Amino acid sequence: MTLGAQLLERLDEAACFSEPGAGVTRLFCSEQHRQVLELIADWMRRAGLEPELDASGNLVGRCDKARAGARTLIMGSHQDTVVEGGKYDGMLGVALPLLALERLKKDGIELDYGVEVVAFGDEEGTRFQSTLIGSRALAGTFDPASLEARDADGVSVGEALRAFGGDPEQIPSLARDPDSVLGFVEVHIEQGPVLERRDHALGVVTSLTGIERHRLTVAGKAGHAGTTPMPGRRDALVGAAEMIAEVDRILNATEDFVGVVGKLEVRPNAVNVIPAEVVFTLELRSPHAEVRRRGREDILAACRQLAQARELSLTVETTYEAEAVACADWLIEALGDACQRCDEPADLLFSGAGHDGLAMCDLTGIGMLFVRCTDGLSHHPDEAITAADGEAATRVLMQFLKDLTVKEQ
Protein backbone atom coordinates (compact mmCIF):
# COMPACT_ATOMS: atom_id res chain seq x y z
CA MET A 1 0.00 0.00 0.00
CA THR A 2 1.31 3.47 -0.88
CA LEU A 3 1.90 6.12 1.77
CA GLY A 4 -1.01 8.12 0.35
CA ALA A 5 -3.39 5.20 0.58
CA GLN A 6 -2.22 4.45 4.13
CA LEU A 7 -2.80 8.05 5.09
CA LEU A 8 -6.36 8.12 3.76
CA GLU A 9 -7.10 4.79 5.44
CA ARG A 10 -5.99 6.19 8.79
CA LEU A 11 -8.01 9.35 8.34
CA ASP A 12 -11.08 7.29 7.47
CA GLU A 13 -10.56 5.30 10.66
CA ALA A 14 -10.25 8.44 12.78
CA ALA A 15 -13.43 9.85 11.24
CA CYS A 16 -15.41 6.96 12.75
CA PHE A 17 -15.04 8.63 16.15
CA SER A 18 -17.79 11.18 15.69
CA GLU A 19 -21.18 12.12 17.00
CA PRO A 20 -24.02 10.71 14.86
CA GLY A 21 -24.94 12.73 11.80
CA ALA A 22 -23.33 14.10 8.67
CA GLY A 23 -19.57 14.54 8.46
CA VAL A 24 -17.40 14.48 11.57
CA THR A 25 -18.37 16.10 14.86
CA ARG A 26 -15.76 15.56 17.55
CA LEU A 27 -15.66 18.08 20.39
CA PHE A 28 -13.04 18.83 23.01
CA CYS A 29 -13.17 16.50 26.04
CA SER A 30 -16.02 14.47 24.55
CA GLU A 31 -16.33 10.70 24.49
CA GLN A 32 -15.37 10.80 20.80
CA HIS A 33 -12.23 12.75 21.74
CA ARG A 34 -11.35 10.09 24.29
CA GLN A 35 -11.86 7.29 21.77
CA VAL A 36 -9.83 8.84 18.95
CA LEU A 37 -6.87 9.35 21.29
CA GLU A 38 -6.57 5.58 21.66
CA LEU A 39 -6.14 5.33 17.90
CA ILE A 40 -3.65 8.21 17.75
CA ALA A 41 -1.66 6.71 20.64
CA ASP A 42 -1.26 3.53 18.57
CA TRP A 43 0.00 5.59 15.61
CA MET A 44 2.48 7.28 17.94
CA ARG A 45 3.87 3.98 19.20
CA ARG A 46 4.30 2.74 15.63
CA ALA A 47 6.30 5.89 14.91
CA GLY A 48 8.59 5.27 17.91
CA LEU A 49 7.00 7.88 20.15
CA GLU A 50 5.73 7.48 23.70
CA PRO A 51 2.18 8.91 24.05
CA GLU A 52 0.98 10.82 27.09
CA LEU A 53 -2.18 12.80 27.84
CA ASP A 54 -1.11 16.14 29.27
CA ALA A 55 -2.90 18.37 31.76
CA SER A 56 -4.58 20.49 29.05
CA GLY A 57 -6.08 17.60 27.10
CA ASN A 58 -3.36 17.29 24.45
CA LEU A 59 -2.05 13.86 23.48
CA VAL A 60 1.72 14.28 23.18
CA GLY A 61 4.06 11.72 21.62
CA ARG A 62 7.80 12.07 22.25
CA CYS A 63 10.77 10.16 20.92
CA ASP A 64 13.56 9.03 23.26
CA LYS A 65 15.76 12.01 22.38
CA ALA A 66 12.98 14.47 23.19
CA ARG A 67 12.29 12.76 26.50
CA ALA A 68 16.01 12.90 27.30
CA GLY A 69 16.07 16.69 26.82
CA ALA A 70 17.48 17.06 23.29
CA ARG A 71 16.41 20.07 21.25
CA THR A 72 13.08 19.12 19.75
CA LEU A 73 11.03 19.81 16.65
CA ILE A 74 7.31 19.91 17.51
CA MET A 75 4.79 18.86 14.87
CA GLY A 76 1.06 18.31 15.04
CA SER A 77 -2.41 19.76 14.72
CA HIS A 78 -5.83 19.50 16.37
CA GLN A 79 -8.17 16.55 16.79
CA ASP A 80 -11.38 18.54 17.33
CA THR A 81 -13.79 19.53 14.56
CA VAL A 82 -16.59 21.93 13.87
CA VAL A 83 -20.11 20.52 13.90
CA GLU A 84 -20.56 18.30 10.82
CA GLY A 85 -17.03 19.01 9.65
CA GLY A 86 -14.68 16.93 7.50
CA LYS A 87 -12.11 14.18 7.96
CA TYR A 88 -9.00 16.18 7.17
CA ASP A 89 -9.10 19.57 8.89
CA GLY A 90 -6.75 19.13 11.84
CA MET A 91 -6.46 15.36 11.82
CA LEU A 92 -4.33 15.41 8.64
CA GLY A 93 -1.65 17.26 10.62
CA VAL A 94 -1.66 14.53 13.28
CA ALA A 95 -1.77 11.44 11.06
CA LEU A 96 0.66 12.60 8.38
CA PRO A 97 3.76 13.37 10.51
CA LEU A 98 3.25 10.14 12.43
CA LEU A 99 3.13 8.19 9.17
CA ALA A 100 6.24 10.02 7.94
CA LEU A 101 8.12 9.21 11.15
CA GLU A 102 6.99 5.57 10.99
CA ARG A 103 8.34 5.25 7.43
CA LEU A 104 11.65 6.90 8.39
CA LYS A 105 11.93 4.45 11.26
CA LYS A 106 11.31 1.49 8.93
CA ASP A 107 13.93 2.88 6.55
CA GLY A 108 16.46 2.94 9.39
CA ILE A 109 16.84 6.72 9.35
CA GLU A 110 17.54 8.18 12.78
CA LEU A 111 17.11 11.91 13.32
CA ASP A 112 19.75 13.62 15.43
CA TYR A 113 17.25 15.90 17.19
CA GLY A 114 14.18 15.26 19.28
CA VAL A 115 10.71 14.95 17.76
CA GLU A 116 7.36 15.59 19.43
CA VAL A 117 3.97 15.18 17.76
CA VAL A 118 0.95 16.78 19.45
CA ALA A 119 -2.73 16.08 18.90
CA PHE A 120 -4.01 19.37 20.32
CA GLY A 121 -7.30 19.06 22.15
CA ASP A 122 -9.08 22.29 21.22
CA GLU A 123 -8.45 24.53 18.22
CA GLU A 124 -11.88 25.05 16.70
CA GLY A 125 -13.54 26.42 19.84
CA THR A 126 -16.77 24.63 18.91
CA ARG A 127 -17.76 23.46 22.36
CA PHE A 128 -16.64 26.33 24.60
CA GLN A 129 -16.05 29.25 22.15
CA SER A 130 -12.56 29.62 23.68
CA THR A 131 -9.79 28.05 21.65
CA LEU A 132 -6.07 27.16 21.40
CA ILE A 133 -6.06 25.96 25.01
CA GLY A 134 -3.50 23.21 24.37
CA SER A 135 -1.15 25.19 22.15
CA ARG A 136 -1.22 28.17 24.52
CA ALA A 137 -0.32 25.79 27.33
CA LEU A 138 2.81 24.65 25.48
CA ALA A 139 3.66 28.22 24.49
CA GLY A 140 3.40 29.44 28.09
CA THR A 141 0.60 31.92 27.34
CA PHE A 142 -2.34 30.00 28.81
CA ASP A 143 -4.93 32.24 30.47
CA PRO A 144 -6.51 30.56 33.53
CA ALA A 145 -9.65 32.63 32.94
CA SER A 146 -10.39 30.46 29.90
CA LEU A 147 -11.16 27.59 32.27
CA GLU A 148 -14.38 29.40 33.22
CA ALA A 149 -15.87 29.29 29.69
CA ARG A 150 -18.96 27.07 29.56
CA ASP A 151 -20.61 24.95 26.92
CA ALA A 152 -24.31 24.89 26.03
CA ASP A 153 -25.00 22.55 28.97
CA GLY A 154 -23.27 24.84 31.49
CA VAL A 155 -20.17 22.65 31.86
CA SER A 156 -16.97 24.69 32.26
CA VAL A 157 -13.67 23.98 30.52
CA GLY A 158 -12.11 23.21 33.90
CA GLU A 159 -14.86 20.74 34.80
CA ALA A 160 -14.67 19.02 31.41
CA LEU A 161 -10.88 18.72 31.63
CA ARG A 162 -11.00 17.11 35.06
CA ALA A 163 -13.59 14.59 33.90
CA PHE A 164 -11.44 13.86 30.84
CA GLY A 165 -8.32 13.14 32.86
CA GLY A 166 -6.61 16.51 32.59
CA ASP A 167 -5.48 18.69 35.46
CA PRO A 168 -6.25 22.41 35.06
CA GLU A 169 -4.03 23.38 38.00
CA GLN A 170 -1.00 21.82 36.28
CA ILE A 171 -1.44 23.49 32.90
CA PRO A 172 1.13 26.26 33.60
CA SER A 173 3.78 23.56 34.10
CA LEU A 174 3.36 22.43 30.47
CA ALA A 175 5.13 25.52 29.09
CA ARG A 176 8.14 24.50 27.01
CA ASP A 177 11.56 26.11 27.35
CA PRO A 178 12.10 28.07 24.10
CA ASP A 179 15.78 27.08 24.07
CA SER A 180 14.77 23.41 23.94
CA VAL A 181 12.56 23.79 20.85
CA LEU A 182 13.77 23.86 17.25
CA GLY A 183 10.46 24.99 15.77
CA PHE A 184 6.85 24.04 15.16
CA VAL A 185 5.59 22.58 11.87
CA GLU A 186 1.98 21.83 10.95
CA VAL A 187 0.61 20.10 7.85
CA HIS A 188 -2.93 21.18 7.01
CA ILE A 189 -5.41 21.19 4.16
CA GLU A 190 -5.46 24.56 2.44
CA GLN A 191 -9.15 25.22 3.19
CA GLY A 192 -9.26 27.34 0.06
CA PRO A 193 -9.14 27.06 -3.75
CA VAL A 194 -5.73 28.52 -4.66
CA LEU A 195 -3.73 25.30 -5.00
CA GLU A 196 -6.49 23.58 -6.95
CA ARG A 197 -6.71 26.52 -9.36
CA ARG A 198 -2.94 26.31 -9.91
CA ASP A 199 -3.10 22.50 -10.19
CA HIS A 200 -0.45 22.13 -7.49
CA ALA A 201 -0.56 19.62 -4.64
CA LEU A 202 1.28 21.60 -1.97
CA GLY A 203 1.93 25.11 -0.75
CA VAL A 204 4.19 26.69 1.85
CA VAL A 205 2.51 29.14 4.21
CA THR A 206 4.03 32.57 4.78
CA SER A 207 1.72 33.88 7.53
CA LEU A 208 -1.51 33.24 9.45
CA THR A 209 -4.48 35.58 9.62
CA GLY A 210 -5.50 37.64 12.61
CA ILE A 211 -8.83 36.57 14.12
CA GLU A 212 -11.26 38.03 16.63
CA ARG A 213 -14.60 36.74 17.90
CA HIS A 214 -17.41 38.56 19.66
CA ARG A 215 -20.75 37.65 21.22
CA LEU A 216 -23.47 40.26 20.66
CA THR A 217 -26.63 40.27 22.76
CA VAL A 218 -29.63 42.20 21.43
CA ALA A 219 -32.37 42.71 24.02
CA GLY A 220 -35.89 43.90 23.29
CA LYS A 221 -39.28 43.10 24.77
CA ALA A 222 -41.40 39.98 24.40
CA GLY A 223 -45.10 40.28 23.65
CA HIS A 224 -48.08 38.50 22.15
CA ALA A 225 -47.49 38.22 18.41
CA GLY A 226 -51.19 38.64 17.64
CA THR A 227 -52.22 41.46 19.95
CA THR A 228 -49.16 43.75 19.92
CA PRO A 229 -49.35 46.37 17.13
CA MET A 230 -46.48 46.34 14.63
CA PRO A 231 -45.49 50.00 15.21
CA GLY A 232 -43.43 50.31 18.37
CA ARG A 233 -42.54 46.67 18.73
CA ARG A 234 -39.10 46.05 20.25
CA ASP A 235 -38.41 42.88 18.28
CA ALA A 236 -34.87 41.69 19.05
CA LEU A 237 -34.76 39.33 16.07
CA VAL A 238 -35.72 41.98 13.52
CA GLY A 239 -33.03 44.25 14.96
CA ALA A 240 -30.46 41.45 14.91
CA ALA A 241 -31.37 40.63 11.30
CA GLU A 242 -30.69 44.23 10.29
CA MET A 243 -27.35 44.11 12.12
CA ILE A 244 -26.34 40.90 10.38
CA ALA A 245 -27.17 42.38 7.00
CA GLU A 246 -25.00 45.39 7.85
CA VAL A 247 -22.14 43.08 8.87
CA ASP A 248 -22.34 41.44 5.45
CA ARG A 249 -22.42 44.80 3.66
CA ILE A 250 -19.32 46.14 5.44
CA LEU A 251 -17.38 42.92 4.92
CA ASN A 252 -18.15 42.93 1.21
CA ALA A 253 -17.12 46.59 0.91
CA THR A 254 -13.73 46.14 2.63
CA GLU A 255 -10.67 44.64 0.97
CA ASP A 256 -8.71 41.90 2.83
CA PHE A 257 -11.54 41.56 5.36
CA VAL A 258 -13.75 38.52 5.88
CA GLY A 259 -16.09 37.40 8.60
CA VAL A 260 -19.20 35.51 9.52
CA VAL A 261 -22.16 35.47 11.85
CA GLY A 262 -22.12 31.75 12.50
CA LYS A 263 -24.33 31.16 15.51
CA LEU A 264 -27.71 32.58 16.48
CA GLU A 265 -29.81 32.03 19.60
CA VAL A 266 -33.36 33.39 19.92
CA ARG A 267 -35.33 33.67 23.16
CA PRO A 268 -38.00 32.67 23.99
CA ASN A 269 -37.92 31.02 20.54
CA ALA A 270 -41.68 30.50 20.42
CA VAL A 271 -43.87 30.61 17.32
CA ASN A 272 -46.30 33.24 18.64
CA VAL A 273 -44.06 35.39 20.87
CA ILE A 274 -42.11 38.50 19.81
CA PRO A 275 -38.41 37.65 20.32
CA ALA A 276 -37.12 39.31 23.49
CA GLU A 277 -33.43 38.50 23.07
CA VAL A 278 -31.05 37.38 20.36
CA VAL A 279 -27.44 36.35 20.91
CA PHE A 280 -25.24 36.01 17.84
CA THR A 281 -21.55 35.45 17.23
CA LEU A 282 -19.37 37.66 15.06
CA GLU A 283 -16.02 36.43 13.75
CA LEU A 284 -13.70 38.80 11.85
CA ARG A 285 -10.45 38.00 10.03
CA SER A 286 -7.78 39.97 8.22
CA PRO A 287 -4.03 39.68 7.73
CA HIS A 288 -3.85 43.39 8.53
CA ALA A 289 -4.54 44.46 12.12
CA GLU A 290 -5.61 47.98 11.10
CA VAL A 291 -8.11 46.68 8.54
CA ARG A 292 -9.62 44.40 11.14
CA ARG A 293 -9.74 47.16 13.77
CA ARG A 294 -11.40 49.69 11.48
CA GLY A 295 -13.83 47.10 10.17
CA ARG A 296 -14.80 46.06 13.68
CA GLU A 297 -15.40 49.67 14.70
CA ASP A 298 -17.56 50.29 11.63
CA ILE A 299 -19.61 47.15 12.25
CA LEU A 300 -20.19 47.78 15.94
CA ALA A 301 -21.05 51.44 15.35
CA ALA A 302 -23.64 50.42 12.77
CA CYS A 303 -25.09 47.79 15.11
CA ARG A 304 -25.42 50.33 17.92
CA GLN A 305 -27.22 52.77 15.64
CA LEU A 306 -29.64 50.08 14.52
CA ALA A 307 -30.29 49.05 18.13
CA GLN A 308 -30.98 52.64 19.15
CA ALA A 309 -33.39 53.14 16.25
CA ARG A 310 -35.51 50.20 17.42
CA GLU A 311 -35.16 50.95 21.17
CA LEU A 312 -33.14 47.79 21.72
CA SER A 313 -30.16 47.34 24.00
CA LEU A 314 -26.91 45.92 22.67
CA THR A 315 -24.01 44.42 24.61
CA VAL A 316 -20.79 43.18 23.03
CA GLU A 317 -18.40 40.67 24.59
CA THR A 318 -15.04 39.84 23.00
CA THR A 319 -14.48 36.10 23.40
CA TYR A 320 -11.26 35.62 21.43
CA GLU A 321 -8.56 37.66 19.72
CA ALA A 322 -5.29 36.70 18.04
CA GLU A 323 -3.10 38.88 15.86
CA ALA A 324 -1.73 37.75 12.49
CA VAL A 325 1.67 36.09 12.70
CA ALA A 326 4.42 35.44 10.18
CA CYS A 327 5.94 32.05 9.61
CA ALA A 328 9.69 31.73 10.26
CA ASP A 329 11.80 32.50 7.20
CA TRP A 330 14.04 29.48 7.75
CA LEU A 331 11.06 27.12 7.89
CA ILE A 332 9.51 28.67 4.78
CA GLU A 333 12.82 28.10 3.00
CA ALA A 334 13.34 24.58 4.37
CA LEU A 335 9.83 23.42 3.46
CA GLY A 336 10.19 25.01 0.02
CA ASP A 337 13.52 23.24 -0.52
CA ALA A 338 11.94 19.93 0.48
CA CYS A 339 9.15 20.49 -2.05
CA GLN A 340 11.64 21.17 -4.80
CA ARG A 341 13.72 18.10 -3.95
CA CYS A 342 10.55 16.04 -4.26
CA ASP A 343 9.70 17.68 -7.61
CA GLU A 344 6.72 19.51 -6.17
CA PRO A 345 6.09 23.22 -6.89
CA ALA A 346 6.61 25.27 -3.74
CA ASP A 347 3.79 27.82 -3.93
CA LEU A 348 3.86 30.50 -1.24
CA LEU A 349 0.43 31.11 0.30
CA PHE A 350 -1.14 33.20 3.01
CA SER A 351 -3.46 31.34 5.40
CA GLY A 352 -6.89 32.90 5.81
CA ALA A 353 -7.64 30.47 8.63
CA GLY A 354 -6.25 30.43 12.14
CA HIS A 355 -4.23 27.49 13.40
CA ASP A 356 -2.37 26.39 16.50
CA GLY A 357 0.60 28.32 15.12
CA LEU A 358 -1.15 31.51 16.29
CA ALA A 359 -0.27 30.38 19.81
CA MET A 360 2.92 28.42 19.14
CA CYS A 361 4.60 31.46 17.58
CA ASP A 362 5.00 32.83 21.11
CA LEU A 363 7.25 29.85 21.83
CA THR A 364 9.18 29.28 18.62
CA GLY A 365 9.33 29.82 14.87
CA ILE A 366 6.42 28.24 13.03
CA GLY A 367 6.06 26.68 9.59
CA MET A 368 3.10 25.23 7.68
CA LEU A 369 2.69 22.98 4.68
CA PHE A 370 -0.66 23.20 2.89
CA VAL A 371 -2.23 20.29 0.99
CA ARG A 372 -4.70 20.86 -1.85
CA CYS A 373 -8.33 20.08 -0.99
CA THR A 374 -11.15 19.36 -3.44
CA ASP A 375 -13.07 22.49 -4.46
CA GLY A 376 -11.24 24.36 -1.69
CA LEU A 377 -13.87 22.97 0.65
CA SER A 378 -13.42 22.73 4.43
CA HIS A 379 -15.62 22.68 7.54
CA HIS A 380 -17.96 20.49 5.47
CA PRO A 381 -18.71 16.75 5.25
CA ASP A 382 -17.47 16.69 1.62
CA GLU A 383 -13.99 17.95 2.56
CA ALA A 384 -11.47 15.78 0.64
CA ILE A 385 -7.89 15.28 -0.50
CA THR A 386 -6.47 12.70 -2.90
CA ALA A 387 -4.14 9.84 -2.05
CA ALA A 388 -1.62 11.26 -4.53
CA ASP A 389 -1.53 14.63 -2.75
CA GLY A 390 -1.30 12.89 0.63
CA GLU A 391 1.64 10.88 -0.71
CA ALA A 392 3.36 14.03 -1.95
CA ALA A 393 2.91 15.81 1.38
CA THR A 394 4.19 12.82 3.37
CA ARG A 395 7.30 12.50 1.21
CA VAL A 396 7.98 16.24 1.40
CA LEU A 397 7.76 16.15 5.18
CA MET A 398 10.11 13.14 5.28
CA GLN A 399 12.56 15.06 3.09
CA PHE A 400 12.28 18.10 5.35
CA LEU A 401 12.99 15.98 8.43
CA LYS A 402 16.02 14.35 6.80
CA ASP A 403 17.40 17.68 5.57
CA LEU A 404 16.94 19.24 9.00
CA THR A 405 19.20 16.50 10.35
CA VAL A 406 21.92 17.57 7.93
CA LYS A 407 21.51 21.25 8.78
CA GLU A 408 21.87 20.61 12.51
CA GLN A 409 25.10 18.58 12.22
TrEMBL record:
<feature type="domain" description="Peptidase M20 dimerisation">
    <location>
        <begin position="210"/>
        <end position="307"/>
    </location>
</feature>
<comment type="subunit">
    <text>Homodimer.</text>
</comment>
<dbReference type="InterPro" id="IPR010158">
    <property type="entry name" value="Amidase_Cbmase"/>
</dbReference>
<keyword id="KW-0464">Manganese</keyword>
<dbReference type="Pfam" id="PF07687">
    <property type="entry name" value="M20_dimer"/>
</dbReference>
<keyword id="KW-0378">Hydrolase</keyword>
<comment type="similarity">
    <text>Belongs to the peptidase M20 family.</text>
</comment>
<dbReference type="InterPro" id="IPR011650">
    <property type="entry name" value="Peptidase_M20_dimer"/>
</dbReference>
<keyword id="KW-0479">Metal-binding</keyword>
<dbReference type="InterPro" id="IPR002933">
    <property type="entry name" value="Peptidase_M20"/>
</dbReference>
<protein>
    <submittedName>
        <fullName>Allantoate amidohydrolase</fullName>
    </submittedName>
</protein>
<dbReference type="Pfam" id="PF01546">
    <property type="entry name" value="Peptidase_M20"/>
</dbReference>
<dbReference type="InterPro" id="IPR036264">
    <property type="entry name" value="Bact_exopeptidase_dim_dom"/>
</dbReference>
